[in-house]
């Protein structure tokens, strides 16, 4: 058996066999690989960025603009409610189930001030994509009924009802009053006319089918910029003096106020409860960081939704928005907020 000198020592030259040399090289390579792997792993940064927080008064402050990593698409929440993605087999089953029943649904939007510019685009797109084939009543709460002249042509079993409201100048005032206006409208006339009611921001556009898969007793929609993000990035209200305050150990998701709904009775309870909490904070001169969205999230923590819609049903193109298979309802208003100044001007935001 051949011998090879390995190194010299004070006592002489050490000689080893070929097998010992091969074994030595193998062990040495394992040690180098292990040390390199540990160093690489230790240097990897967390894939979860900090979401920009809402300052007091609702002003957005960017911490880090990194798009959320999209997790695998779960179809169920931790408490067993369906998490809806429109093209899944479960959604197809839900559409078939509700289509056989035949339902009466309402879609409500508040149109005040300059927001009247969005009403025709919203309704025209809803006619194509919102619950096609079902009986739908559009409820437009507005301080400018003439903005709907001439009337928009609607399909069979679709109707439009205009509910006049007092002028509400300023976004802050509007946000504080919307829940109360929603509760009043549900009480009369909505409760006697439809089974389900969905509340949506008017500055949105339906761009793909939104069918019966969205129906449930209490329905909430995941915020597209916070889907897949860690819990500590959710902009819940943290001030304990606020009725919308959320403790650190509370909350599963962060929901957007762009679209939510459910059975008329459930929605009346939601709107009424949130409006009372808002009034309570107003009396104490407290302003929640996310305005009405803060109260909506507080309510949905205490009363978990029976159906949760994925960000497909509330989306806009921004550096933070998670990728989705299909964009179904796009927020034009929040899209403009995501633009830089030059792009805003070009798109007349």
From TrEMBL:
<dbReference type="GO" id="GO:0005794">
    <property type="term" value="C:Golgi apparatus"/>
</dbReference>
<feature type="binding site">
    <location>
        <position position="317"/>
    </location>
    <ligand>
        <name>an alpha-L-fucosyl-(1-&gt;2)-beta-D-galactosyl derivative</name>
    </ligand>
</feature>
<dbReference type="GO" id="GO:0016758">
    <property type="term" value="F:hexosyltransferase activity"/>
</dbReference>
<feature type="binding site">
    <location>
        <begin position="201"/>
        <end position="203"/>
    </location>
    <ligand>
        <name>UDP-N-acetyl-alpha-D-galactosamine</name>
    </ligand>
</feature>
<dbReference type="InterPro" id="IPR005076">
    <property type="entry name" value="Glyco_trans_6"/>
</dbReference>
<feature type="binding site">
    <location>
        <position position="115"/>
    </location>
    <ligand>
        <name>UDP-N-acetyl-alpha-D-galactosamine</name>
    </ligand>
</feature>
<keyword id="KW-0479">Metal-binding</keyword>
<keyword id="KW-0808">Transferase</keyword>
<dbReference type="GO" id="GO:0046872">
    <property type="term" value="F:metal ion binding"/>
</dbReference>
<dbReference type="GO" id="GO:0005975">
    <property type="term" value="P:carbohydrate metabolic process"/>
</dbReference>
<feature type="transmembrane region" description="Helical">
    <location>
        <begin position="19"/>
        <end position="36"/>
    </location>
</feature>
<dbReference type="GO" id="GO:0016020">
    <property type="term" value="C:membrane"/>
</dbReference>
<dbReference type="InterPro" id="IPR029044">
    <property type="entry name" value="Nucleotide-diphossugar_trans"/>
</dbReference>
<protein>
    <submittedName>
        <fullName>Globoside alpha-1,3-N-acetylgalactosaminyltransferase 1-like</fullName>
    </submittedName>
</protein>
<feature type="active site" description="Nucleophile">
    <location>
        <position position="293"/>
    </location>
</feature>
<feature type="binding site">
    <location>
        <position position="201"/>
    </location>
    <ligand>
        <name>Mn(2+)</name>
    </ligand>
</feature>
<keyword id="KW-0472">Membrane</keyword>
<feature type="binding site">
    <location>
        <position position="223"/>
    </location>
    <ligand>
        <name>an alpha-L-fucosyl-(1-&gt;2)-beta-D-galactosyl derivative</name>
    </ligand>
</feature>
<dbReference type="GO" id="GO:0031982">
    <property type="term" value="C:vesicle"/>
</dbReference>
<dbReference type="Pfam" id="PF03414">
    <property type="entry name" value="Glyco_transf_6"/>
</dbReference>
<keyword id="KW-0464">Manganese</keyword>
<keyword id="KW-1133">Transmembrane helix</keyword>
<feature type="binding site">
    <location>
        <position position="293"/>
    </location>
    <ligand>
        <name>an alpha-L-fucosyl-(1-&gt;2)-beta-D-galactosyl derivative</name>
    </ligand>
</feature>
<feature type="binding site">
    <location>
        <position position="203"/>
    </location>
    <ligand>
        <name>Mn(2+)</name>
    </ligand>
</feature>
<comment type="similarity">
    <text>Belongs to the glycosyltransferase 6 family.</text>
</comment>
<keyword id="KW-0812">Transmembrane</keyword>
<keyword id="KW-0328">Glycosyltransferase</keyword>
């Amino acid at each position: 058996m051949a011998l090879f000198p390995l190194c010299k020592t004070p006592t002489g030259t050490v000689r080893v066999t070929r097998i010992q040399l091969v074994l030595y090289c193998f062990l040495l390579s394992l040690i180098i690989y292990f040390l390199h792997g540990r160093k690489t792993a230790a240097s990897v940064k967390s894939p979860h960025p900090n979401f920009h927080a809402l300052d007091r008064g609702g002003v957005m402050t960017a911490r880090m603009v990194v798009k959320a990593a999209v997790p695998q698409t779960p179809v169920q929440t931790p408490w067993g409610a369906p998490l809806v993605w429109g093209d899944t087999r479960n959604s197809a089953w839900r559409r078939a189930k509700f289509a056989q029943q035949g339902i009466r649904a309402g879609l409500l939007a508040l149109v005040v001030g300059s927001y009247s510019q969005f009403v025709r685009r919203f309704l025209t797109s809803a006619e194509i994509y919102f619950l096609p084939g079902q009986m739908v009543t559009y409820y437009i709460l507005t301080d400018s009924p003439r903005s709907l002249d001439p009337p928009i042509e609607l399909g069979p079993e679709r109707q439009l009802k205009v509910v006049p409201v007092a002028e509400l100048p300023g976004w802050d005032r509007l946000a504080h009053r919307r829940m109360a206006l929603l509760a009043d409208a549900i009480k009369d006339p909505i409760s006697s006319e439809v089974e389900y009611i969905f509340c949506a921001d008017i500055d949105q556009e339906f761009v793909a089918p939104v069918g019966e898969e969205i129906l449930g007793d209490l329905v909430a929609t995941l915020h597209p910029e916070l889907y897949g993000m860690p819990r500590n990035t959710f902009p819940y209200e943290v001030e304990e003096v606020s009725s919308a305050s959320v403790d650190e150990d509370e909350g599963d998701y962060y929901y957007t106020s762009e679209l939510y709904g459910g059975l008329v009775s459930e929605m009346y309870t939601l709107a009424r409860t949130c409006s009372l909490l808002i009034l309570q904070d107003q009396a104490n001169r407290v302003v929640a960081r996310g305005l009405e969205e803060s109260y909506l999230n507080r309510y949905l923590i205490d009363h978990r939704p029976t159906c949760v819609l994925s960000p497909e049903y509330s989306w806009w193109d921004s550096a933070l928005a998670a990728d989705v298979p299909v964009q179904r309802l796009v927020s034009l208003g929040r899209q403009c907020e995501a633009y830089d100044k030059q792009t805003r001007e070009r798109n007349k935001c």
